[in-house]
Amino acid sequence: MQTPDLHSRLLAILAADAAGYSRLMSLDERGTVAALDAARAVFREQVVLHGGRVIDTAGDSVLAVFDSAAGAVTAALEAQRDLAGLATGLPEDRCMHFRIGVHLGDVMEKADGTVYGDGVNIAARLQVLAEPGGVTLSDSIHRAVKGKVAASFEDQGEQTIKNIAEPVRAYRLRLPGDAPTRPGLPSAAEISLTVGDVASRLPDKPSIAVLPFTNMSGDLEQGYFADGISEDIITEIARIPALFVIARNSTFTYKGKAAKVQDICRDLGVRYVLEGSVRKSGQRMRVTAQLIDGDTGGQIWAERYDRELADIFAVQDDITEQIVRALEIRLTETASPATSRLETEHPEAYDCVLRGREQYRLFTKEGNAAARLHYDKAIELDPGYAQAHAGLALTYLHDLFSGSPGALERAFELAELAKSLDPSLPLVYEALSSVLLFRRQHDEAVDAARRWTEIEPSNAEAYASLAGILNFAGQPQRVAELIEKAKRLNPYHPFYYTLTLATPVS
């Protein structure tokens, strides 16, 4: 039964998203924000002009609905034309292109105009299939507008849509004069591996996804601590060659969402899931963790740790060891993360690193500045803390993208110092490989990225970074192999994996 303020409607849904937005922000924050504002104005104008209404413009996305299927498709076409005009004269790497998906389906609409439901989800997933600057339609929209709009349609076949029971047939919209996709050249949709493609088979070794631990502290601001513990556990078990570990980027898509373990395992292509919770109060913490079999949904191992904050690394090590025992993994002497990690003895310094990591990942000027303050504080508390120095190096690398003088050399100094403090720390080689690349020391950058894959063999970013650096070094032979490996470890991979695969540097 529907509530008075919620009713079902058949609507055409347009979902759009900027391609490569994070990269553009890293290159020019001010210019990118201005370009996004201009793009939003284009969408608003074309949506209203063709009988629709904009529902949401969160982040770099646009969601709009129309009573008319033809209105939605025409608005999408006209918006892409206008957006292409905005980009005229700009270097290609500074152009903001949008992907657009359009679907005709039922939605649940609230009295305030907000819409929910499968129709919205399908439009959003079709948007992911579209090329930058392109439009992808569902079969329902295609049937409704065929012969009514000045465009042709290229059949993309049936697509598996996450959380939608039946496959959706998709069509790429082509304007008159547009060239069809060249035979033998994969389209953006084909080289962008979907979750269903990734999870089609299990790896030949124990495979696991670590979900973000639930923050039980009663304070939303403590979320960084629960996230940090989850991520550090991922890092530690990703060091174990005998394990296959899904990337943080993919497992954190389930943060705050109710999902069955069996569904998560199927989506990510793993056998096991680790989930848990963290409650932090003063200098005490309670951490719970349980390992679950994705086939049966049964619990394999569970533990609760009531400890002082100073014991956090011992807790992480014990969780790692329990996973190893439960999955009957045989470790070599050099494969045990517990014996190789060098951590701080100051809980406050670790807390600063976790706060810095959270702020850095905002990828904004303000977040980068806040991250630097936290890393500086951690170093003040423990001058020998390699994690803090490596994290600080990444903040200076971020400044390099904003044109800050001296940023690259400072990043290099910090990365080298972090390496001298802990040569087994994966973050050292994440920072060092990027810094060396921008110093045009390609051979050394390749060596650093390769060392990262050796230390942390289940880190998707390590393989993606190595692939990108090999492109710049004029060694593209292994790029495809490395990107496919990165995609398998990170099913919800970022756009630049595909970009690295599709556009090798000459």
Descriptive notes:
- The chain is of the alpha/beta class and 506 residues long.
- The chain folds into three domains: 6-189, Alpha-Beta Plaits (2-Layer Sandwich); 207-340, TolB, N-terminal domain (Rossmann fold); 347-502, Serine Threonine Protein Phosphatase 5, Tetratricopeptide repeat (Alpha Horseshoe).
- It is 48% helix and 19% strand.
- It has 21 helices and 14 strands.
- The chain has helices at residues 21-27, 29-49, 69-86, 118-129, 139-145, 188-191, 195-198, 223-238, 248-251, 261-268, 312-326, 337-340, 347-360, 365-381, 386-401, 407-421, 426-438, 442-455, 460-472, 479-489, 495-502, and strands at residues 6-19, 52-56, 61-66, 97-110, 115-116, 135-138, 152-159, 168-174, 207-210, 214-215, 244-245, 272-281, 284-293, 299-308.
- Strands 1, 2, 3, 4, 5, 6, 7 and 8 form an eight-stranded mixed beta sheet that branches. Strands 9, 10, 11, 12, 13 and 14 form a six-stranded mixed beta sheet that branches.
- Strand 13 (284-293) and strand 14 (299-308) form a beta hairpin.
- It is globular.
- Mean pLDDT is 85; it is low at 177-200 and 333-339.
- Residues 12-127 form the Guanylate cyclase domain.
- This is Adenylate/guanylate cyclase domain-containing protein.
